[in-house]
Design brief:
With 191 residues, the protein is an alpha+beta fold. Helix content is 25%, strand content 36%. The chain has helices spanning 29-43, 49-68, 103-114; strands at 20-22, 71-80, 86-97, 120-127, 130-143, 154-166, 172-180. A hairpin with a 5-residue loop joins strand 6 (154-166) and strand 7.
């Protein structure tokens, strides 16, 4: 049996497919630095000491930021494309205290809030642990010319899949979020 997280959040179990690389989330800076070193060696297996030493501090900082935002897990997903190149995504998991009286009330409230945004495709799910709500959205962003590779303002499409799962054992909601700009692999039902 696993005891609850030190901040009171009940334990959560999930699996991710191969291709996800866990960001270094840890409370202590020394532990984050060691995890970041492992992370960059896994992320760039053909790299060298110079590459690993220069990128590890960035990912240690990302781990600190994600942890300070309440994320329990954060990862980068990198997947080889058949035609060359890499499809990528970001995935994170967090839990927030909600004080909900029941999982049904929590899921109903989440659904009511999410359907107000016409850009969300919101769905109810009956899971073994109780009800959950997912939303799928596509957004378009403008990348300023000075930041775009070609020197011209560019439009970037990004998709997000988010699942809200009220904990059946306590007043928390697990939030699972996947973001990607690799829209070539976005399912046709989400377009």
């Amino acid at each position: 049996m696993t005891s609850p997280h030190p901040d009171g959040i009940p334990p959560v179990w999930f699996t991710v497919p191969d291709g996800f690389h866990s960001l270094p989330l840890a409370a202590a800076a020394e532990e984050r630095a060691a995890l970041a070193d492992e992370f960059v060696r896994e992320l760039f297996p053909r790299g060298d000491d110079a590459l690993w030493a220069s990128t590890a501090p960035y990912y240690a900082g990302m781990g600190e930021l994600m942890g300070s935002c309440g994320h329990e897990y954060a990862a980068l997903g990198l997947f080889a494309r058949d035609e060359g190149g890499v499809a990528h995504c970001a995935f994170n998991v967090g839990a927030v205290e909600s004080g909900h009286p029941s999982v049904e009330a929590a899921a109903t409230g989440i659904r009511e809030v999410l359907v107000r945004d016409s850009m969300n495709d919101v769905r109810w799910h009956d899971l073994p642990c109780g009800p959950a709500v997912s939303s799928v959205s596509l957004r378009e962003f403008t990348v300023p010319a000075e930041l775009a590779g070609g020197g011209q303002e560019t439009r970037l499409r990004a998709g997000q899949i988010q699942a809200h799962v009220p904990f059946p054992t306590g007043p928390y909601i697990g939030v699972f979020t996947l973001d990607t700009a690799s829209m070539d692999y976005w399912g046709s039902s989400a377009r």
